[in-house]
């Protein structure tokens, strides 16, 4: 075997090793991208849930909140200006967090099971007359997509006659 033939064999072997190394690198990068996406998805969900839980903790820390939600269940008209303002800003904070989570869900970053739980919570809210009133009257802008989702949940509630009650959270008022 002469030097030129040996060089061709070694060159072919070198090309094979280089190709194999590229494939291994691409496989590794693919794994890294997948892990990064999973970590990003977890951070997105955790951030939204933290925001929702902040709203819940605020509501729980307000001794008047049970009374406000009980009055607001059927209509906002029985709320004082202060109660109505408080109700509006709590609902706004919750909806902002849910809107963000909804967009991440649409983009594939939120597990559908996680979104379904939050959608069911929105469905319960959207099936109370007082919340429907808040949604129609609120001056804050939401995205077209999120607004269509909420409007659809409200329409579903009206069409099916399903009306939610917050008494499961606030208890019967005496």
Please outline the helices and strands.
Blueprint: H1 3-61, H2 65-72, H3 81-106, H4 112-126, H5 129-137, H6 144-160, H7 167-170
Provide a descriptive summary of the structure in words.
There is one protein chain. This protein is mostly helical. It has one domain (41-170). It has helices at 3-61, 65-72, 81-106, 112-126, 129-137, 144-160, 167-170. Helix 1 (3-61) runs antiparallel to helix 3 and helix 3 runs antiparallel to helix 4.
Q: Helical content, roughly?
A: over 70%
Report the β-strand fraction as a percent range.
under 5%
Low-confidence stretches: 168-174
Helix- and strand-based class?
mainly alpha
Largest sheet features: none
Number of strands: 0
Spatial gap, N to C terminus: 102 Å
What would you report as the Rg, rounded to the nearest angstrom? 27 Å
For the record, the count of structural domains works out to 1
Overall shape: it is rod-shaped
Rounded mean pLDDT is 83
The helix count comes to 7
Name the quaternary structure.
single chain
| Secondary-structure element series | HHHHHHH
